[in-house]
Write a structure and sequence with these properties.
Layout (H helix, E strand, L loop, with lengths): L2 H32 L15 H27 L1 H18 L1 H9 L8 E4 L2 E4 L3 H7 L4 E4 L6 H18 L5 E6 L13 H14 L3 H9 L3 E6 L6 H11 L3 E6 L8 E4 L4 H10 L13 H6 L3 H14 L8 H10 L5 H14 L22 H31 L1 H18 L15 H28 L5 H19 L5 H19 L1 H31 L2 H7 L7 H13 L9 H10 L3 H4 L5 H10 L4 H8 L4 H10 L3 E4 L2 E4 L2 H9 L2 H9 L1
Parallel strand pairs: 3-6, 3-7, 4-5, 5-6
Antiparallel strand pairs: 1-2, 1-7, 8-9
Helix pairs in contact: 1-2, 3-6, 4-12, 12-13, 14-28, 14-29, 15-16, 15-17, 15-20, 15-22, 16-20, 16-22, 16-23, 17-20, 18-19, 18-20, 19-20, 19-23, 20-23, 20-25
Pfam family, one: NACHT
Protein name: NACHT domain-containing protein
Keywords: Membrane, Transmembrane, Transmembrane helix
Length: about 675
Amino acid sequence: MDPSGVTRAARLTALVALCLVTVVLLLPAAISVSTGGAVPGLLGEFARWLWPAVGAMVLVAIGLAIWERVRGHETSNRAAALGRVEAHVKALLASSLAAQTQIKLGVLRQPRLSVRVDGEAVSSSDLEAVYDRLGHTMVLVGPVGSGRSTLLRELCLVLVERARNDPEAPIPVVVDLATWRAYGTRKPTEFTAWLLREMNRRYGISRSAGTIWLRRERVAVLIDGLDEVPRIDRAHCESELAPFASVVCSTEPIENLPSVYVEPLSRGQVLEYIASVSPRLDGLESALTPAIWERLDSPLALNLLALTHLDRQVDTIGTDFVGSFVVERLSAQRAAGPTIRALKFLARLGRPDLGAPVHMPHRRWWLPLLPTRPLWLLFVRAVPAAYAGGVCAVAFLTGLQLGLWPALVFVVAASSLLVLVNRVPRVFHPPGRAHGLLTAVLGFLAGVFAGLLVGLAGLWLGGIGTPWPYAVAYVFVVVAAFFLALGFVPGDAPIPWAVLIAAAPGVSMIWTGPYAVLAGMGMGFSAGVAGGVFAAAVGRVWRTVRPGQQQRMRLGRPWWIQPAVPMLGLVGALGGLGAVGSWGTALGVALGLLVTPTAARDYVWPFDALAEVAAEGLTRPLSLGELSFRRKALLHLAQDRLLLTRVDGEYRFAHVALRDHLASCDPTALVRATRR
C-alpha cells in the first residue's frame, strides 16, 4: 500500500472525526452551558473548558483542511509543472550559443545531427523512438560541443507534449549536475535532497509533491552536466543518480545504462549547412584548410567558426576556434583588459550560473581562488581556537551554576560529539613558516564570547521549567529525551534505542526530581545546537575548497587541538570546584547534547559568515581590477558579445568550452591578441 495514500486517509479521517465531535457533542454542550442549561454528566467539572475546546477543535479542523487542500494542490498541479518545465527548457534553447548563431546568420536550423545506437545510425529526429526502444533510460555519449545538451532539451520538449496528452506519462525535468558537489558526501539521500531542491527552484515543484512523484515514478529526470562533477566524485554521483535518471549527457558511457552515441559532423553535413546560409558564409568553404577540416566535427566548432568568419571576413582562420572567437568578440572593446580579467575571474569560479545582473556569486564560491595561507589560518588556527574557547566558556558557566560533575560531563561529551558529527576537516600543517598565533588568539577570544552567550541562553532555557507542576516537568523530560535520542541514534530502527535512552531520565528522576534534569538539559541543548551549527558551517565551507588545496593542507592531525580542547575545558570546569553538583543535572547536560547531530544541517547564514572571513584574502585582488565594480555593465557587455547568456534572470557562460578557455587563458596575451 502506498504510504502517501495511508497518510491522506488518516488525515481525512481525523478531519471528519474532529468535525463530528465538535458539531455533535462539544458545540451543543457549550451552548447549553452558556444559556444556563444543565451540564452533561459526561463532562462533569470540565464544563468551563467547553468553549476553549470548541475553539481549539475548530482551529485544528481548519489547519487539517488547509493542509489537505495544499497537499491536494501539490499532487495535482501537473499542468502548471509541465508549463514551467517547457518555459525553462525553451529559455535554455533560446539562450544557447547555437540559437544565437542562428539569429546572427539568419537561419532557422542547425546542422543535421545523427546518433548511433547498437551500431545503427539514426537521425536525431528519431531520438524519441530510440528513447522508447531503450526502455526510457539511456546515456547520450559524445565529446564536449557535440550537441548532446541541445538534443536533451529537444527530447524534453517532446516528452512534455507527450505528458500533456497522456496523464500517465511522467513529467520530464532537466537538471544540471554542475550545481551538485559531493565533497564529503556520506548520506545516500543527499542526491535526492539536491534533486528535490532543483525541482523546486527551477520548476516550482514542492518538496512534498516531488517526493511523491519520484516515489511513484511520475518524473523523468533528464540530467546534464555530469562532466562538471569532479573525477573524485564521479563514481559516487553515477551510483546516486542511477535510480532516478532517464537520460544522462556524458562524454563516457555509464555502466548498466544503454548508450546512444552522438555522431560527429561529416564533411557533407558541414558543406550542406554552409550552403544553406548563403550568402552570409560565402568564402568560408575556400578558407577551410585540411587542419581545420580535421577539427570541424561538432556543432560547437561550426558555430564558432561561422561567427568568427562572419565578423572577420578574411580567408585565413586558425584551428583554435574558441580562442579566435573570444578574440574577435572582444577586439572592438577599448577596455578589453578589465573585461577579460573579470571574465577570467568568473570562469575560474566554475559555477553554472553567475547570479543576477547586480549580484555576483557569494563569497563562499570564491574560496577555490584563495591562496593556501588564508585557508590554513582559518581552518588550522581560527576554527580550532574558537571551538576551544567556546568549550571553555560553556564549561566554566556550567561548573559555576550547576556544579563540577555537569561541567566534566559537558567537556567529555562535547569533544566526543564533535568527532561523531565529523564535520570539521582534518587540516593541520602550515604551508611554509606560517604560525598564525594572533589568529588563534583572536579565534579563542571570539569563541569565549560566543560560549558565554550560549551558556547564558542554556541557563535561561533550564530555568523555564521551574514553575511547572511536578508531573508536567517529569513527562516533558521523558518526551524531550525520546525525541532528542530519536534524532541522535543512527540506523533503520532508532525507536527502540530512543526508548531506552528516554528511560534513563525517567528512572533517575525518581531520586533527583525533574527540575535538576531540566536545568542540565537546557544547558546541553543550547550548547548542542551551537556546536552542531558551527561544525556544519565549517564542513560546508571546507567542501567548497578545491581538492588540491585540501590535499596540500591534509598532512596530519592538529598538533595542539586534541590536548587543547580537553585541557581548556577542564580549566573552564574549575568554576565548579565550589560545588560538586547533582548527577541528575549531569545527565540532563548529556541528554541535551544529543541534539548536536540534528543541528548539524546545511543552514545558509553560518556558511556565508565563515566564507566571508576566509574571502577577505580576495579584497586586494578585487581592488586591483580583477573583478570590475561595474558588474551590471560587465554582464551586459559579455551578453552582447555572445560570451554570456541570460536564462530566467541568471547569467551563465554561453558554453562550457568558452568558460574553460577563459579560466585557463593568459589575460595579457589575450589583450595583445585583441589589439592586433
